[in-house]
Write a structure and sequence with these properties.
The protein has 448 residues and is mostly helical. It has 21 helices and 4 strands. The strands form 2 sheets. The protein has a two-stranded parallel ribbon. A two-stranded antiparallel sheet has the order 2-3. Helix 7 crosses helix 8 and helix 19 packs antiparallel against helix 21. The longest helix is centred in the C-terminal third of the chain and has 39 residues.
């Protein structure tokens, strides 16, 4: 990994956590996962690099091969952290046997000082995130836990602060950093992949995370093409821009094709009845209206959204490049908030694309019919991807939820219906998805 932004993120000094002295005052001042201590200097250096040299994906910790996916994540931590790893690795059985609470309550309070560098921080955040969701939702939606014990909350918040992520399981954990090859020398395809951690639901749970991973990997060529397109525009390199637009459209179509693997690998009933429960957060959630208390860190409960596809940096990059401006009454503020749930380097790439010249305006200004058609192919491919997502949500959430209303008890039915109507990220699910899809369609260039 080169210098610049990647170096700042991955090699920033590990501030001392002696006696677990991460205070409520420090976390509150830095806010919800967004404000890293080196942010101002980092932004200035980054913008200077972009202006003088163009966009270099390495500066944003983005791989040309894997996109935003963490390349070959670590699968184990040093011996000192085995109390975390033992619980995380055996999470499904511990949840099914109602043993998570007792195991976590007995867990020692471990220092985070012995974690070395970005990859160990990511694995620790992933492990503690899975443990957290298992702890909160062990008894299902009827009896969620309202507080995380000190032995879990303190190190989780410390690692979250180091990474610039919130102390809850996010998409960057469960999808982008939660994979390994079965055969280390084999291909990166779903038959040779497994998750590092999972929830109850067996193959369904693994399939959901792995299909989402494959979709993200399919975005890699599109993200690379966005950088090429933006770097071509100041040079008026029309041929390079046209080729980049076609690559973006191909990448979006490849993402939609990868999405179809969901139907082969994830059962709708198992997803809705088991896995989805463990993805819910504690913001805009009627089941946890007061939020979650992080014992030993904050005196008041905190509110965080659960993991959601809206936390995909890839999709927001495509939106910003294509000039899609979502409705500011609801959609845009929510999507902006989701950026606080992304790794800071990835968030910075989205912001850099947004701050750059408008690709849509540039393409229209050229008067090139060929470029306009290529741009419209990108928009159409993104609309089709969003349509496919909507249809999948109907199959995996709406239909199972309607079936559940018939069989559930009265109190549970109210809770189940309220949760079903909202995404794991807290949105009014179908209205949000359709609004985002319709906004995407409106940027098509007409009268070519």
């Amino acid at each position: 990994m080169g210098a610049g932004y990647a170096g700042l993120v991955q090699d920033s000094p590990h501030t001392s956590n002696t006696n677990h002295s991460l205070t409520m005052r420090t976390l509150s001042r830095r806010g919800t996962a967004g404000s890293l201590h080196f942010k101002d200097t980092m932004d200035q250096d980054l913008h200077r690099l972009v202006r003088t040299q163009g966009i270099d994906l390495q500066q944003f910790c983005v791989s040309e091969e894997y996109g935003f996916v963490l390349s070959d994540p670590l699968t184990d931590l040093p011996e000192y952290y085995q109390p975390w790893m033992e619980i995380a690795k055996h999470l499904p059985g511990l949840i099914e046997n109602h043993q998570i609470h007792s195991r976590v309550n007995e867990m020692p309070l471990l220092s985070t000082d012995h974690l070395q560098g970005h990859r160990e921080w990511r694995l620790a955040h992933l492990a503690l995130g899975f443990i957290t969701m298992g702890y909160v939702w062990q008894e299902g939606v009827k009896h969620p836990s309202k507080a995380l014990p000190r032995s879990l909350a303190v190190p989780y918040c410390e690692i979250s602060e180091l990474l610039g992520l919130p102390p809850i399981l996010v998409y960057a954990d469960s999808v982008l950093a939660n994979w390994k090859r079965k055969d280390p020398n084999g291909p990166v395809e779903i038959g040779n992949l497994d998750t590092i951690f999972t929830f109850p639901g067996g193959d369904c749970a693994r399939g959901f995370f792995l299909v989402s991973l494959i979709v993200e990997m399919a975005a890699a060529t599109g993200i690379k093409a966005i950088a090429t397109a933006l770097n071509s525009m100041p040079l008026h390199a029309t041929s390079s821009l046209h080729e980049a637009l076609l690559d973006i459209a191909k990448s979006l179509n490849k993402m939609r094709e990868a999405f179809k693997l969901m139907h082969e690998n994830v059962d709708p009933g198992d997803f809705y009845g088991q896995l989805r429960t463990f993805l819910h957060g504690w913001r805009d959630n009627l089941l946890l209206p007061e939020g979650m208390l992080y014992e030993g860190v904050w005196e008041e409960p905190k509110h965080y959204y659960g993991g959601s596809a809206a936390q995909s940096s890839a999709i927001q990059c495509f939106d910003e490049f294509l000039g899609i401006r979502h409705g500011f009454d609801y959609d845009a503020p929510y999507l902006y908030r989701m950026r606080d749930y992304m790794p800071p380097a990835h968030r910075a790439l989205i912001q850099t694309i947004a701050a750059g010249p408008s690709a849509r305006h540039h393409i229209i200004a050229t008067g090139s019919t060929e470029l306009c058609h290529a741009y419209n192919k990108c928009v159409t491919a993104l609309v089709e991807l969003r349509n496919y997502h909507i249809n999948t949500v109907v199959k995996y959430i709406t239909i199972p939820a309607n079936k559940g209303k018939v069989t559930s008890g009265c109190i549970f039915q109210i809770h189940s219906s309220a949760v079903a109507a909202r995404g794991t990220g807290g949105t009014g699910l179908m209205c949000f998805l359709k609004s985002v899809r319709d906004t995407t369609r409106r940027v098509l260039i007409n009268d070519i």
